[in-house]
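User: I'll paste a sequence; please echo it back and then give the predicted structure.

Assistant: Echoing your sequence first, then the prediction.
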Amino acid sequence: MADYFSRAKTVPGQRVYLGEGPVPVTSIQSVNLVSIALLEIRVICLFSCLSKYNRIPINLLIFNLATADILFALFIRPKLIVSLYVKHPDGPSGTVLCKLLAGGIFAWVSEVSSVCTLLAIAIERYYTVMYPHGDRWKLTKRKVKIIITASWLFSLVFISPMFLGMKVTNGICVDTWTGLEWIPKVMTSAVNVVVFGPLLVMVALYSRVVHTLWFKSNDGNQISNQQKGVIRVRKRVTLMLAVVSGIFSICWGTI
C-alpha cells in the first residue's frame, strides 16, 4: 500500500511490466496478496470452528478480522483488473468506477480495519494473561461493538484522502495527489505508522504473553487441574492469534 503513494509517475495508458515478460508486476502482487489473505482466512476459520468456546467476545473480534480480510481479498483483484485493462468512461459513471472500484478504496479500508482489530486482539490477550483477575480490561460484547465500530470509522477517515484524490484522466484512474511532492511522502509515512507501529506493539505484547504462558507458568508451582485447563485454552488461543498476526505481517511485507 505504501508503494501506491510513493511509486513513480507513469504515462497515461502505459503498463508496467516485470522485465520483458508479459505479466504485469501488480498482477503478481495480486496473486501473492490474495493467496496469503485466503490462507489467513482458512487459519482463522479452522481454529474458530474447532474451538469449543465459540461464543466469547474475543471470537467477535476474530469474526471481524475474517470479514475484513475477506473483503480485502474480494476487492483487491477487481481493483487491479479494472485499473490495468479497463478504459474508464468520461462523466459521472467513470468517476464512480474510479473512486469505488479502480481506486481499491474498499480493499484498503478493510485492511486498515484488520490492523486495528489485530491490535485490539493482542491487547486483549495481554491483559487476559497478565491480569487474569482484573475486571477493568475484561472484554465484553459492548466493548467489542465499540472496538469494531471504531476500527471501521478510523479506516474510513484514514483512507478518505485517497478517495478524494482519485479521478479519471484520459480514460485512466489516477491519483491527483501525485502532483504535490509532499502528499505521497506524508501518506507513505502515515501508512508505515499505522501498519508497522501496531505490528511492533503486537510483537512486544505477544512476547510477554508467550513468556508467561509457556515458561513462567511452569516454574515448579503447584496448580490445580482447572487452572491447567485454563492455561491450555489460553495457550491454544494465543498461538492461533500469534500465527494469524505473523501471516498478516508477511502479507504486508510483500506489498
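Helices lie at 2-6, 25-50, 57-85, 92-102, 105-130, 141-165, 182-214, 225-253. Confidence is low (pLDDT under 50) at residues 2-26.
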